[in-house]
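Input record, target 12 of the design panel.
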């Protein structure tokens, strides 16, 4: 589903007019209208705010397929070789091998530490994301993951 259609769905599901949605997102009604018409798209900061305000996975806004991701770092778990292990040695269905082994998280870190680690791996000259884009994405994704739900970034 295109971003414009997702935004309409979110607005209608919440029973909001374009003006009411705009007020919640600190933008103009015209901005919401242009997004919904497909004339423009919200920037990364607006997408992050939409995801947080309406409790929508950022992947849905970006029209990315929802897939199994590590519940610590958000890395897609598309390949079994990436899975961590449970205490009994079986593969973890919910965590990658860099975050989880033997039924426990590897090392202590704050959500902010995890953001920094992920940004280092996602951004750079050869990477598809700028540092700002990677940081905004991770800051919106991590609070939705099992390890970080309810945790405040340091």
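The sequence produced for target 12 reads:
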């Amino acid at each position: 589903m295109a971003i414009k259609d997702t935004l309409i769905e979110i607005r209608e599901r919440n029973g909001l007019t374009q003006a009411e949605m705009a007020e919640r997102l600190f933008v103009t009604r015209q901005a919401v209208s242009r997004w919904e018409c497909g004339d423009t798209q919200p920037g990364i900061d607006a997408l992050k705010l939409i995801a947080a305000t309406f409790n929508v996975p950022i992947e849905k806004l970006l029209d990315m397929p929802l897939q199994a991701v590590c519940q610590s770092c958000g890395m897609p778990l598309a390949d079994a070789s990436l899975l961590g292990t449970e205490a009994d040695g079986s593969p973890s269905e919910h965590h990658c091998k860099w975050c989880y082994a033997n039924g426990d998280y590897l090392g202590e870190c704050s959500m902010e530490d995890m953001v920094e680690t992920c940004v280092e791996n996602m951004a750079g000259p050869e990477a598809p994301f700028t540092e700002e884009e990677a940081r905004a994405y991770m800051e919106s994704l991590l609070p939705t993951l099992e390890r970080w739900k309810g945790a405040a970034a340091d």
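The helical segments are 3-13, 18-25, 29-37, 44-53, 58-61, 111-122, 131-141.
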